[in-house]
Write the structure tokens for this entry.
Amino acid sequence: METSTLTAMYGKFAAVKAVTLQFPANQVHALIGPSGCGKSTFLRSLNRMHEMSIGGWVTGRVLLDGEDVYGPGVSVIQLRRRVGMVFQRPTPFPTKSIYDNVAAGLMLEGKLPRAELDEIVERSLRRAALWDEVKDRLKGSAIALSGGQQQRLCLARTIAPEPEVILLDEPTASLDPQGTQRIEELVFELKKDFTIIIVTHNMQQAARTSDTTTFFYLGTMVEHGPTKQIFTTPQNEQTEAYITGRFG
Amino acid sequence: MVGLMIGAVIVAVLPLIFILGSLIVRGAGSLSVAFFTRMPVPAGETGGGVLHAIVGTLIIVGIAALMGVPIGMGAGLHAAEYPGSKISWTARFVADVMNGTPSIVVGVFAYTLVVAPQKHYSAFAGSLALAVLMVPMIMRSTEELIKLVPNSLREAALALGYARWRTSLSIVLRTALPGIVTGSLLAIARVAGETAPLLLTALGNQYFSVDINGPMETLPHVVYKYATGPYEEWHQFAWAAALVLILVVLVLSIAARIATRQKFGGARG
Amino acid sequence: MATSAVPAVHDRAARPRSLSGSSRHDQLFRAILTACALAIPVLIVMLLIVLVRGADPAIRKFGLHFIVDSTWDPIAGKFGAFPLIVGTLLTSLLALVIAVPLSLGVAIYLTEFAPEMVRKPIAMTIELLAAIPSVVYGLWGVFVLMPILRTAVFPLLRSVLGFLPFFQGVIYGPSVLAASVILAIMIMPFIMSVSREVLLAVPNSQREAALALGATRWEAVRTAIVPYARSGILGAIILGLGRALGETMAVTMLIGNRHEIVASLFAPGYTMAAVIANEFAEAQDRMHFAAMTYVALVLFLVTVIINAAARLLIWRVSRGAGSGGKEL
């Protein structure tokens, strides 16, 4: 996945300014920066969620396998099945069971045989490290789970339809340290199968989990590079200031 | 100052106790199984029942709900899902204005539209009038309840590849459904007690009838007819019918409110 | 890019992946919802058209003179709605005079002073009062309220205020004043619950600012909260007025139904809604129907204007709070 001079607007305000970036496959890419720097808006532009916001529109291009996702005739539905997303707060569907939550994305493409559905649900829950905790109550309510479990359930729901890219928008912001650790371990595991782009407020999280890191400030992409380099020898003063905690 | 206000609160609560008390004291004595299963008896005799009116109310209100609930829900969903649109704003404003339109005026409307051309009274015209009264109420309650569904749920469904329509129906509407059902029950309860529009449409009927093209008896009309009649037995009958009517309306209202509170206690955000 | 890296863990991954597709279903869905939403404005326009067409013969014959003429003679085919309009306005305004102070007192007490445990039960009681059907109020009014008024309250009023022309003459049971009292009881819950919502929509900062300046709670209510909510409270009162103007059953049962204007409030009168309820089913003559439809049209226009004004006033206060008095 890559972007080319991607600019995301709210009405007349540019939240993201002409960002060009490449996200090689099977790596974890972290987007960092202070609040309001545009990193979340940038992320939401990748699966066209930004346009759902009031006044949201974009210019520039977002390429998935070389195809412009903002091109004419592109179905946002097809796009979002290939680019999954997990949000800041866990968002299990409250009226659906645990099983149905995981299967929610799969049901959209028509009926699958029961056995195959069972198999995918189980595998997705295993990959989200949730299977052992919920295998006895798959028909139970999803909102009865703890916050961390709910977030892993959302992760399982996102990976079930086999997207290519997973967008994580501060996925651990509402979790306790233990829940955070589980998610971070999962991110590391999952990059074998997916390209992962993660927005985070937490510098240690970026340093621990990602292969590349991009620093955003005031809507512009300030610096991009291998995570190790960004955290040890940043080229830009602002990046260094942010990483060392002098602002933000 | 506070003493005065406590007095005001007594003024607020007293009428309910007074009215319910009168209904129970004067109406309960006439209630019996026969009241629900029999037809009225001629003036001068005691006993008899309001089976025809209970069935009539169920039919007329049921048909009204079949017409009014889907339209009201659709309009409410529209207002909540496309809040910025001009149509939503207009529908919301007109619905609020229509909620204050006298029901008798809606009765004249249904009379002119259905009864006058047919040249006979009809239960269907009554249903039409009640549906017109119901739509704005259901629209507003649906909208308010859908607004309580966190936007993050909508986003999660869209991000998963749900189409707008599927997100609206199977996630947003589905999540708000318990509240919407109770809101609709509340609207149904309110129109079930309406009398004025039925005077011009369903009129009333001494006999048992399920013909929606003809006149039909209803509970509120029984209360009116027997309360304004000259006989003491009729007045007894009116009190008993009013007690049944109020029980239906209050039970529906109380159940609806309790259910809504429980489901949506902390759903916002 | 990413595709080749996705392991073919099961054959679903092998299905062709493209980005194309259409959103026909979304358009259809939106069209259906739009039709439902449009049904509401269409309905109000239809109401207007149907009423105007039904009233047409009377509008042609009597014109605007209808509003100031006092004749109501179905046999001669002559109609004027002046007594009805006066009766409607009189009962509604009297009802407001009785209901407004009490309702506002309750609303202010509930939002600003009442202990938490009292608020919900009283609010619930008010909502239940609003749910009682009009015909039940009428029944109760005729058999419980009216005897009390006739034997105790009206004689007292006559002996104390009898020097005024409004409180002179024979005391009948059914009367303008009896109808006004039942109307007051009926509209109080509406005024209470709408003004309560408006008061709840007043930002807490207003309250705290006044209290921080050293105001007592009562001074805070008087100087900060009520002024802030003023237009919304006015809206609630106007909404109550709209209710009272169109209220039919209870008024029909208590007002005595006489086409006359008498100074005494103890005398019977008539209202627009009551005349329709009483005479519509028995009318024979085309002009009689047209005249009553004309009355309905006037009533409709008056209540639409009043409700629109009330809603705009309420929205001004509670715009930020989301709800402008749902279900009322």
Q: What stands out?
A: Chain C touches chain A through 18 residues (CB under 8 Å). Chain C has one domain: 83-321. DSSP finds ten helices and two strands in chain C.
